[in-house]
User: Fold Small ribosomal subunit Rsm22 family protein from Streptomyces cellulosae.
Amino acid sequence: MTAPVSPAETLRTALTSLLDGLPARQAGQAVERLIASYRGATPTHTPILRDRADVAAYAAYRMPATFEAVHAALEAFADAVPDWAPAGHTDVGGGTGAATWAVTATWDGERPVTVLDWAEPALSLGRDIATANPALRDARWQRAKIGSALTLDPTDLVTVSYVLNELTAPDRTALVDAAAAAAQALVIVEPGTPDGYARVIEARDRLIAAGFQVAAPCPHSAACPIVPGEDWCHFSARVSRSSLHRQVKGGSLAYEDEKFSYVAAARFPVDPAPARVVRKPQIRKGQVLLDLCETEPGLRRTTVSKRHGALYKEARDANWGDAWPPPSDEPPRT
Ligand SMILES: C[S@@+](CC[C@H](N)C(=O)[O-])C[C@H]1O[C@@H](n2cnc3c(N)ncnc32)[C@H](O)[C@@H]1O
Assistant:
């Protein structure tokens, strides 16, 4: 019997075939133009993704990374709400739909899915790629502008991935408020930079004020213990590099690490991790140093040594972003 193909593999195949008709040089130039636009002054007043070539380049170059980042955030969220699965999903600023793929990689089954974006070429390409994913067969891809007039239909889960970054401060507020009014659960992902973290914390504060509880990455819904300007909370997701990546960035590494910041929060009771590993664990001879965010006293470094027995083995296996201590029994996900 052959193993079922995961959404991640299906997405990779769909993205590779996207570039089939596009000469490598043209795809490389489109990516470089996009990187330059994203480096420029954002927010923008018109969509950056203007045509099919832009969007194909964006999708092939960035979608594997945004998919992996959102997938990691959703898995952490799912661990904190083991008896819950979304009965509906809206992806705002969804572009080519990376977060919709990540939701199907996190929870089995089908649900009504809506993707909203102001860039028609992105929606159109997202719709085409999604034909490869049976759980996205009936997804609706709709034009919508994020702004003070935005309202969202009620749904279980709203995702906002790599979007706050492109909005003005009033539009960020309008989006978080509209999502909080419509959703039972909200997952926001941003680049893992000091600015990305600041936007996540701004959204986190608004969600808590609106009655949400933080499910991940934080072990609590109290104020973040990080002193602004001194550090920023972020994580890392491993992404296989495509031939387009290698062409644009050079080098021969088979993977790269996507840094991201996120918050996942819900209106219903959540069971956050008691602590989370917030830096890459440092493995020394006979001991592992773990930087943890805990409920009390906040940030703390702990040393787990051979004396700790089974916990030492778990610490050696711990990854940046994991819950600590690891949950002993993984309950089946519905
Ligand atoms: C960096 S892309 C992220 C796409 C997707 N969420 C992902 O994670 O791959 C940002 C998306 O936000 C959309 N966007 C930016 N400003 C917008 C606005 N004011 N209204 C609607 N969509 C907007 C863009 O068109 C683009 O598709």
Remarks:
- The chain has a mean pLDDT of 90.
- The radius of gyration is 20 Å.
- The pocket of S-adenosylmethionine is lined by residues 47, 49, 63, 66, 93-95, 98-99, 117-119, 122, 145-146, 161-163, 166-167 (CB under 6 Å).
- Residues 52-80 form the longest helix (29 residues).
